[in-house]
Sequence to fold (131 residues):
Amino acid sequence: MKAQLLTLTATLALAALPVSAEPDLSKLPPASSKTGLTYAADIKPIFEKSCVKCHGSEKQKGKLRLDTLEAVMKGGENGAILTKGDSKKSSLVVSVARLEDDGAMPPEGKGDPLSKEQVGIIRAWIDQGAK
Ligand code: HEC
Fold:
């Protein structure tokens, strides 16, 4: 009986794990309704506060720099981090929204997570063409 219970518990625990590794995009905070967003005015200040110590002139973790628009467009060791016009297809957004434990940015314990508002600004900026 005890063994059966253990098996049942293990089966239930496995069933509770997500089947695919795809992030659940329905959990993304909504894009901000602000218009006219630009890297220089709206995005760079967020990156400077939370990201550039690891993705700037001193360190380039993941071969990624976020301190110029050009560098953001270039992406990192895994290529582009955003798709202009489609924030849902942008790994940058999945990272800062912390949809997956793996690759959440800033990394767990290495800085305050971005707020829903900040993620919404980044989403709207990408949706508007990432200028
Ligand atoms: C304490 C250091 C640190 C901070 C702060 C940090 N990152 Fe990272 N980042 C890393 C490391 C290490 C990697 C590479 C390994 C990994 O993916 O965990 C990485 C990888 C990435 C990647 C993937 C690059 C690729 O091509 O694979 C993105 C996108 C990213 N970071 C975005 C950000 C953003 C946006 C911020 C700020 C909100 C941020 N990071 C803050 C350390 C950091």
Notes: Residues 50-51, 53-55, 61-62, 64, 66, 75-78, 81, 91-92, 95-96, 103, 105-107, 110-111, 114 surround heme C (CB under 6 Å). The two ends are 63 Å apart (CA to CA). Residues 38-131 form one domain.
